[in-house]
């Protein structure tokens, strides 16, 4: 199982200088490359300091010039926010600039906050339908001389300009949770990205079972891969692990607040949650984080990841967004590289 890193530029306070946060993110990427991780993934989000990522291709091109070996993935492009011709061209140019290191992840998106600003009236169903139209269109544009008359986009015969370095095209990944999404990805010959969020082993088993069932039913021409994206923290000791569980519990409370889209947002920052509000919401808890996520000493994390490998996951991406300080993120990543990665070489 390959081990990778997933992160955004994350801002939790108006006092945090954005240029400093960006350089800290780049430092973590450079550490990941030197440490032998397989890939770095970063996503697309808009108007949210929670995850600052207006165009992942910009970040990946910069990361490419600061690194030598890692694959560079979009985790993920939000399908309804981009035209097929634009996505085909921008992805291909990124693949050329990064010397063929691009992995193209695509999703329907998740935040109503973004939907109502970029495409008012859009819901998850409509976003999913746009993704199902976008993926085959992009692949066809890379083949060339393709005209499209779809429900959401229409254009005369067009060839992507430029064409990607990787042939026939960069690996495509589709974010999937429900069986229909897994089936769509497999039918399109796409790999699958999935995240159980804060949920435990039952959800992790369900996700890969769904993927395997889709592969058995639709028999893809080439073997496909499945990646597990999950928060983790390699701790120095149990006290360190407990602190990480508390920090990730707070992160998920903010994640849930952004997802519900009911709380005031000012200057890109959501109104702070009080300790009382966090304590009252039992859907998330530090105990669940400690139990369900890859939090613990190196031996604990290794054992958990070995279980994922045995289930059949091809890649594990350590999700570093957490609301933690840069120092704590860096310390965990260094322990991950020095103590966990060697067990998977």
Automatic annotation (TrEMBL):
InterPro entries: Bact_Lucif_Oxidored (IPR050766), Luciferase-like_dom (IPR011251), Luciferase-like_sf (IPR036661). The keyword Oxidoreductase applies. CDD domains: Flavin_utilizing_monoxygenases (cd00347). Keywords: Monooxygenase, Oxidoreductase. It comes from the Bacteria. Gene3D superfamilies: Luciferase-like domain. It comes from Pantoea eucrina. Residues 1-314 form the Luciferase-like domain. This is LLM class flavin-dependent oxidoreductase. The keyword Oxidoreductase applies.
């Amino acid at each position: 199982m390959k081990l990778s890193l997933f992160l955004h530029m994350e801002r939790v306070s108006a006092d945090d200088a954005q240029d400093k946060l960006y350089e800290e993110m780049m430092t973590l990427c450079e550490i990941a490359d030197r440490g032998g991780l397989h890939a770095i993934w970063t996503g697309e989000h808009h108007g949210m300091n929670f995850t600052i990522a207006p165009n992942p291709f910009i970040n990946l091109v910069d990361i490419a010039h600061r690194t030598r070996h890692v694959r560079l993935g979009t985790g993920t492009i939000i399908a309804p926010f981009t035209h097929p011709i634009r996505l085909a061209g921008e992805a291909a140019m990124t693949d050329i600039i990064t010397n063929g290191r691009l992995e193209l992840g695509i999703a329907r998106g998740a935040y109503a906050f973004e939907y109502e600003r970029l495409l008012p009236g859009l819901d998850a169903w409509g976003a999913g339908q746009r993704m199902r139209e976008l993926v085959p269109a992009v692949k066809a544009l890379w083949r060339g001389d393709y005209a499209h008359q779809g429900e959401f986009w229409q254009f005369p015969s067009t060839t992507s300009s430029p064409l990607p370095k990787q042939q026939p095209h960069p690996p495509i990944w589709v974010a999937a949770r429900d069986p229909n999404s897994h089936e769509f990805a497999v039918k399109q010959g796409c790999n699958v990205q999935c995240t159980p969020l804060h949920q435990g082993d039952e959800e992790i088993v369900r996700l890969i079972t769904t993927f395997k069932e889709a592969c058995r039913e639709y028999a893809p021409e080439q073997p496909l891969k499945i990646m597990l994206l999950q928060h983790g923290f390699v701790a120095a000791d149990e006290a360190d692990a407990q602190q990480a569980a508390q920090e990730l519990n707070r992160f998920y409370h903010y994640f849930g607040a952004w997802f519900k889209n009911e709380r005031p947002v000012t200057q890109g920052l959501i109104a702070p949650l009080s300790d009382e509000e966090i304590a009252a919401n039992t859907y998330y808890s530090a105990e669940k984080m400690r139990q369900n996520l890859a939090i613990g000493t190196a031996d604990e994390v290794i054992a958990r990841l070995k279980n994922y490998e045995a289930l059949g996951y091809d890649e594990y991406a350590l999700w570093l967004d957490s609301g933690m300080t840069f120092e704590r993120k860096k310390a965990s990543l260094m322990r991950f590289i020095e103590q966990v990665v060697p067990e998977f070489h």
